[in-house]
Sequence to fold (63 residues):
Amino acid sequence: MKTEAINCPVRDKINSYCSCPKTDCERHGLCCECIVAHKSRVNDPLFKRLPHCLRDLLEEKTG
Fold:
């Protein structure tokens, strides 16, 4: 993991919005790392390509 992500100055503020239930994930709480990992899942459906915290936006839009 990159030191820049671990030392992110707004990490605590961002993590207050984290709704991901996978607390054992090595990227949990590291939004930048999580987003990159999910966006790289090009063979998965769109829903799975979004981090858990953003999936509600997709559901809201597609309702």
User: Anything to note?
Assistant: The two ends are 36 Å apart (CA to CA). The chain has five helices and no strands. The chain has a mean pLDDT of 83. The longest helix spans residues 31-39.
